[in-house]
Structures are given as C-alpha cells and as structure tokens.
UniProtKB/TrEMBL annotation:
<dbReference type="InterPro" id="IPR003616">
    <property type="entry name" value="Post-SET_dom"/>
</dbReference>
<dbReference type="InterPro" id="IPR046341">
    <property type="entry name" value="SET_dom_sf"/>
</dbReference>
<dbReference type="InterPro" id="IPR001214">
    <property type="entry name" value="SET_dom"/>
</dbReference>
<dbReference type="GO" id="GO:0042800">
    <property type="term" value="F:histone H3K4 methyltransferase activity"/>
</dbReference>
<keyword id="KW-0808">Transferase</keyword>
<keyword id="KW-0539">Nucleus</keyword>
<dbReference type="GO" id="GO:0032259">
    <property type="term" value="P:methylation"/>
</dbReference>
<feature type="domain" description="SET">
    <location>
        <begin position="1"/>
        <end position="93"/>
    </location>
</feature>
<dbReference type="Pfam" id="PF00856">
    <property type="entry name" value="SET"/>
</dbReference>
<keyword id="KW-0156">Chromatin regulator</keyword>
<dbReference type="InterPro" id="IPR044570">
    <property type="entry name" value="Set1-like"/>
</dbReference>
<feature type="domain" description="Post-SET">
    <location>
        <begin position="99"/>
        <end position="115"/>
    </location>
</feature>
<keyword id="KW-0489">Methyltransferase</keyword>
<keyword id="KW-0949">S-adenosyl-L-methionine</keyword>
<dbReference type="GO" id="GO:0048188">
    <property type="term" value="C:Set1C/COMPASS complex"/>
</dbReference>
<protein>
    <submittedName>
        <fullName>Uncharacterized protein</fullName>
    </submittedName>
</protein>
Length: 115
C-alpha cells in the first residue's frame, strides 16, 4: 500500500453539481474519483497527497477499491519496487468520451489520451 485516496464521499448528483461549480470557479483539475456506481470521492478541497498523483499509461502503481468495515475506500498500491525520487503514477482508467483529455505521460506505450 502506498496511500489512501482521501476526500469527501459524495453521491453522483452532488458530484455533477460540484463539477460544474468547480469549472465556473476556474478550478481546472477535478479531483473526483469514482468508487462505484453511486459514490464518488471528492478530494478537491478536502484530501491528501494522493490527489496529486499523476496518470501514466505505464504506471508503477494501481488504484483498487477495498471495503473496510462496510465502507469502500480507494487505495493506491505499488506494482513494483519504487526508487527514491521516482514519480508515483497510476492509470486513471477514465471512461471513453468524445471530448478527449490529452495524456502527457510521454511513455513509449502512451495511449495519447486519458479517455
Ligand atoms: Zn500516456
């Protein structure tokens, strides 16, 4: 385990409203992480260092939803040994959408977009 992705647990309706509000406020990056069909963790204004981990098409970590005492949590695990000063990354696994978000990971196997 590397770190838990911490934030406020919110429902889809609230996530939709916040996403629009954040865009209006000029908050460029969204830190909304889907746990399951009904629940999203919002780390935009209340989170930890996990929200700053970048996407990579060839990551050294992965995100997994685990359940502890009936509460779902997102935890970042390492896939391999990670060296000192090596950037921690994971695949965001965004759903495919028409409006593409370019990927900046610059790895040989980069897919070109996050979604
Ligand atoms: Zn990439």
């Amino acid at each position: 385990m590397v770190i838990e992705y911490v934030g406020q647990n919110i429902r889809q309706v609230v996530a939709d409203m916040r996403e629009k509000r954040y865009a209006q406020e000029g908050i460029g990056s969204s830190y909304l992480f889907r746990v399951d069909h009904d629940t999203i963790i919002d780390a935009t204004k209340c989170g930890n260092l996990a929200r700053f981990i970048n996407h990579c098409c060839t990551p050294n970590c992965y995100a997994k939803v685990i359940t502890i005492e009936a509460q779902k949590k997102i935890v970042i695990y390492s896939k391999q040994p990670i060296g000192v000063n090596e950037e921690i990354t994971y695949d965001y696994k965004f759903p495919i959408e028409d409006t593409k978000i370019p990927c900046l990971c610059r790895t040989e196997s980069c897919r070109g977009t996050l979604n």
